[in-house]
Each structure stands twice: as structure tokens, then as C-alpha cells.
Amino acid sequence: MRDIAVVAFAQRQESKINTESEVEFMVPLMNQAKDAVGLTQQEMGFTCSGSSDFLAGQAFSFVMTIDGTGPVPPISESHVEQDGAWALYEAWVKLQCGEIDTAFVYSYGKSSPGSLRDVLATQMDPYYVAPLWPDAFAIEAMAARQLLDQGVVSEQQLAEISSRSREHAASNPHAIRTTPKTVADILAEDYAMQPLRPSDLPASSDGGAVIVLAADDKARELCERPAWIRGIDHRSDAHTLGVRDLTQSMSARIAGEKAGVGDDKIDIAELHAPFSTSEAVLTAALGLGDDTVINPSGGAQAAHTMMASGLIRIGEAAQRISRGDADRAVATAASGPCLQQNLVAVLEGE
Amino acid sequence: MADEVLTAPLVLEYPFTRTTGPVIGAFLTGLREGVVQGVKRSDGSVMCPPLEYDPITSESLSELVPVSTLGSVQTWTWNGDPRPQQPFSQPFAWAMITLDGADTPMLHAVMVDGPHEMETGMRVEVVWRKEREGHITDIAGFVPAVASALGEPGVVPAGVEEVRSVRTPIRMEYTYSPGRALSQYLRAMKDKRILGDQCPETGQVFVPPRGVSSIAGRSTLPDLVELPDTGYIESFNITRVPIKMRPDLTPPYVSAWIVLDGASVGFMGLSMNIEPEDVRVGMRVRAVWRPDDELEMSAQNILGWEPTGEPDEVIEDYARVGRPDEEASGS
User: Fold this and answer.
1) What pLDDT sits at residue A61?
2) How many other C-beta atoms can be found within 10 angstroms of the C-beta atom of residue A161?
3) Phi-psi domain of B247 (left: phi exceeds 0; alpha: psi -120 through 50; beta: other)
4) For chain A, is the Cβ count within 10 Å smaller at the N or the C terminus?
5) Can you give the pLDDT at residue B257?
């Protein structure tokens, strides 16, 4: 296996980006990441992106966004209809093959033009579930009630998670929900989607993220302290909600084991947990303890950009390693209803 | 430069008709006949609604068994703000319901007066829609079960026509905004002006503007450039087959690739005021605009392109878009 590291990261998240098209707001981010390591597009061995046209209702938006990379002469390129973390995985595999030393990964989501919680109904079973148009919050709320009914978490613990997310987000310029709120204040909120309160839900945002990966000595040359990807794995639970145990995440647990989360102490964890309940499920699945700082950025609850939030978790974790704030971190990305799919990456400094 | 963002309503609709296969088809046939069925798994448990495979073991499944129309709520939430496509127009509960005789829950709606009437474990029963067609919404929803309800599993009558496909249309509404460069382009269109944007590295001009130079991978310059409404036809085809979605186009007609004077890329337009057989590569054209009182913020203001009568353009190099060094080397 080659050593592969995150050597650059750029992100933008705002509650609504309506003055710029997707490609217009991604181009400056792409250049920010390229400039950070002094690479041009032609020096990137491979480019992979993640997005979904359903979010903005913009057909072939990803084709237009490729123009933003400057693909002249033509570049080696691929796209996933998933969070950019899966684009990063594809790039990581390509780097492992040994033909290239650098890869350019980006993803973006602009959900504000539509009603995201309804658009997400289209990812459900098309025969039995999608025709009823259950919204995404309702599905999560039903999983949340099972967690509470079975005593896996308490409303108090969920409020603690949401309160901490707000506290951490206050120092993150890219977070949306940054106003502090005590546990008592959160417990006093009216339900948004019973038993979930407004603070339990993600703060939806538009935005994108860019990561540059590099292998071996190339990474050392481009970055003072590369964030080495020591383990990465992704797993998927069944799509049929009825056969899943929504109070735990088998996919995150297995991916975490394969990625080596438990092999050593984890300083920080950036978990793609849009809901307070998802954080409780992921923390348990990965076996994270009190010595790990969970979501120092505020996490996906504080700013949730569909298709980019997972990649941003990897970027946030990598950035803390490169800055020397952490030595070993875990980042996760999720996709599908109730954390159906999970990608887990373990990052380390040298 | 006008700062106000342009927006427009956008609706995406997909009229999906899906084939059902033998198991889902049998389930939907049962719903039409007022019978709910599950499918037996290899461990003897029953999955309802049924699939033709076991999502856990990946075994093929085919043995359908009737289950009750009574069941228990496994979990639920309150939907205080129903949307048009959902089962009820009044606030209702979403619930995962395991029917008696089944071992897995199904998602559906429960009609009660408020969340205070819902609890985990409560007994509910199916409410059938009067007109049924073989669709998950043949179950209108669930209501709390009355004590005397039996919910006896039914039997699908022999010889009824099987459901083989199901309509699952999708409709989503958006508020589209075209972004920085296109907004300016569309505004200028209302004044019969054509704007392009410029690559900051090569100076090449793109129309319509997209806000990005794909040559350089850079944002285009913030100030757009105005182009004349004249240019030439770089390429064209004559269409002789009608297009269902464009009844306004009567064949034969010419789709032409128009390169405006000063532009580095072309775009599609229709030829006007010339017989299709007389259109040629290099022909000089100018825009035919809608009458002034019909102008909108739309590229459709240009009805088509008519000959100017000037001598034809001599096209020496079709590859205008490229990096300057490549152009110099003649590649």
C-alpha cells in the first residue's frame, strides 16, 4: 500500500448561495486548493467529483462544473452521484494503483432552490415508500423514537450533542448554526418532528469542498504536515428500512473496524452526523470514548451541505492534523436515509 | 450591473412507469383486491411489503402469504405540515407498522387527531381506498383499530388480472436562479443586447456566458462584453423529421451553429428568411428579434438568423478554443 495524504482543503458553506451558479462558486474554491499546493489542473493525475443534479434541479450541472477545472487539454476524470467522500475514495484507489501521484477531488450541493427534505424522498424504495413522499426529517424522527424507546439515548443526551455542536460551531467561520444554546434551552424547544427538536436537525446549507490528495514523497513535498490516510473503508446497510435496526449502524461499525479506528487513541472525530441522533449512533458504532473530541467544527448539524458534508468532515479532520492540533483523527461520510451507507477514514500526522 | 438575482419557477416531472416483477406485482394485485400479503424468508419469518429477494441473505423469495390488515406501530412521528403528494391533506402521523403475521414493518400514514393519540405499540388497521388500481396508495392509510376488528387475512381471488406495472410519477418544484453571468446575459437580452464573458488569461469571449473559462479553469472577468448581433454560420444541418416537443418547428428547418463577430465559441440557432437548401457554411447572418413589445429576459427573443447578403466568411480554422500556445503551434 502507498502512503496517501490530504495535502490541501478548501470549503465554502452558506445557508443560501443564490447569486452564483454551481460552477461559479466552485471555481474560486478549486483554485484556492490548487494554489495552496502550487499545482495546476494539468499536474493533477486524476480528478473525481461528487454531486447530484436533483438538489438544484439543474440537469447536467456536474458536466458544467467540470469546465471549472479547466479541462483543456482533456483530463482524466470521473464523477459519483454521492457525497464527495466517495469521490475521494475512488481517487484513493486510483492513487493506490501507482500510476499517478496526485488527485483532485471536489463536490458540491445547492439544495436551496428546492425542498431538500422532499427531494430526498426520491432516494427511497420507488414502489412502496417514495410514492408516499415521506420527508427526510420524518424518517429520521422515526429512527430517533426507536433510539429513545429502547433507551439507547435520552432526550437529555441528544440536547447535549446539539448544544456542543453549537458551541464548537461558534469558532468555525463556515458553520451556519453558531448561536450557543444550553441543554435546558434546547429541551425547552417545541418539537419540529417529534421527538426531534429544531436543534436536533441539520442546518441546511449550500456549498462545496475541494481536497487535493498526494502520495508518498509528493505529499511531503507539497505539504509541511500531510494528513496521511491510514485506513479507509465504506460499507452499506440494506436499502429496505423495514429490515434494518435503525438504533445502530452496522455499516459504520464494520467500516470503522476495517479502517482501524480502534487501533490507537483518536484525538478528534469529524462525524457526518446531520442529526443529533446520527451522532449518537456513529459514536457508538465507532467505539469513540471521552478522550475523543467529537466534531470540533460543529459537524454536519451546524452546516449540512448535501454531497459535500462528508468530504468536508475529511477536510476538517485533515486540517487539524496539518496544523498540529491533532495527531490521529477519524472522519466519516454518510449517504442514504438513516446513515444507510458509511465511509470511515483514519488520518494521522507523522 | 444589476445586483438583483433573477429567479424563475422550475418544475421537474418524471412520469415513471415501473415494471413490478412477480413478487411486487402479486403484492399490488392483492392490494387492489383488498388483501395484504408478505413473502416468506428462509428462516420462516415474513417480510411485508414483500421483495423478490431477501435484503439480508440475498436469497430469492417467492412464497407469498396473506397477512392481517391489523398491526402494531413500531415507531412514529407527527407530520404537522402535510405536502400535496403525501397520503393525507390533514396533519397525520407517519408510522412503521408491523402487520399481524408479518415480521418487518412497513411505512405508512396513520390518521388521528393529534400526536397525543399516537403511541409506540398501539394497534392500527388498514383503511382501503375506494377505487384501487394496484398501488401502495390503495392503502389510504391506517386508523386506530377498534376492539372488535378481526383483520382476518384475505385471499386473492383466482384468475384476476395481475398487476405488471405501476405508475410512480415524480414532481419537484424549484426556484431556479441562473447565477452571476447568465443573469446579466438575460437582463441584456431584454434590451436586444448580446453579452459574452471573457477568459482572464486568453481574452477569449464565450457566449452565452457561463461565468467560467474552461480553457483556464478560472472565473471569467466580472465585466461582460457586448457583442454585435451579426456573425456567420459555422455548421448546420437540415432537419426533415418533426420533433414531438417542438410543434412550432415545421420541417424542413435548419439548425445552425452561429459564431458571432468577436466570439470564440458558437451556439445553436435557427436560420430564417432563406430556403434550407440555400444555407451554407460561412454564410453571414444577423439576428431576427421579436417585436420590441414582446421582449423578455430570454434568449428566445432571437427568433432566428437571416442572411445579411455580405460575402461569405472564409473559415480557416475551426478550432478557435484552445490554449494560445497550441494555436501558435498549429495543433
Assistant:
1) 85
2) 25
3) alpha
4) N
5) 96
Average pLDDT of the residues in B149-174: 93
Q: Percent of chain B having pLDDT more than 90?
A: 88
Q: Helix A276-286 crosses helix A250-259 at what angle (to 10 degrees)? A: 50
Neighbouring-strand partners of residue B212: B219
Q: Residue B323 above 60 pLDDT? A: no
Cα B238 to Cα B132, B259, B278, B279, B327: the distances in Å are: 49, 18, 11, 9, 31
What is the amino acid identity at position B209? P
Q: Which of A105, A113, A118, A135 is nearest to A39 (CA)?
A: A105
Residue of B nearest to A238 (CA): B55
Instruction: Decide if B65 is inside a domain.
Output: yes
Residue B331 is predicted with a pLDDT of 37
Q: Which residue has the cell 442546518?
A: A203
* B257 and B216 within one domain: yes
Using the 8-state DSSP alphabet, how is residue B53 labeled? Answer: B
C-alpha span between B124 and B156 (Å, rounded): 22
How many domains in chain B? 2
Cβ-contact A318, A257 below 8 angstroms: no
Those residues whose C-beta lies under 8 Å from the C-beta of residue B243, and which sit 6 or more positions away, are B249
pLDDT digits (tens, 9 = 90+) for A51-96: 999 999 888 889 999 999 999 999 999 999 999 999 999 999 999 9
* Mutation to test the B interface, candidates A31, A72, A137, most B Cβ within 10 Å: A72
Q: Is residue A179 within 8 angstroms of chain B, CB to CB?
A: no
Could you say which of 3.40.47.10, 3.40.50.2000, 1.10.10.410, 3.20.20.370 is the CATH number of the domain covering A4-114+206-222? Answer: 3.40.47.10
> Could you tell me how many residues make up chain A?
350
Query: Given an 8 Å threshold on Cβ–Cβ distance, is B77 in contact with A113?
Result: no
Inter-chain touch A122–B107, beta carbons under 8 Å? no
- Residues 32-51, chain A, touching B (beta carbon < 8 A): 41
Can you tell me whether residue B167 is helix, strand or coil?
strand
Which of B10, B47, B86 minimises the CB distance to A243?
Answer: B47
Residue B5 lies in a domain: no
Residue numbers of A between 283 and 342 with CB closer than 8 Å to B = none
Q: Which residue has the cell 403484492?
A: B27
Of B126, B141, B162, the residue nearest B32 (C-alpha): B162
* Set of chain A residues whose Cβ sits within 8 Å of the Cβ of B179: 19-24
> What is the pLDDT averaged over residues A176-182?
97
B42: number of Cβ within 10 Å: 11
pLDDT digits (tens, 9 = 90+) for A108-158: 999 999 999 889 999 999 999 999 999 999 999 999 999 999 999 999 999
CB-based contact, A149 to chain B, within 8 Å = yes
Q: Helices (H) and strands (E) in chain B — how many of each?
A: 3, 22
Share of chain A above pLDDT 70, in %: 100
pLDDT single digits (tens) B112-135 = 999 999 999 999 999 999 999 999
d(CA A287, CA A346): 14
User: Does residue B3 sit within a domain?
Assistant: no
Strand-strand pairing, A47-50 and A102-109:
parallel
Q: What pLDDT was estimated at residue B245?
A: 87
How confident is the model at residue A166, as a pLDDT?
A: 98
CB-CB neighbors (< 8 A) of A28 in chain B: 219
pLDDT in tens, B295-316: 999 999 999 999 999 999 988 7
pLDDT computed for residue B315 by the predictor: 84
Model confidence pTM above 0.90: yes
Report the complex ipTM: 0.94
* Level-2 CATH architecture, domain A229-348: 3-Layer(aba) Sandwich (3.40)
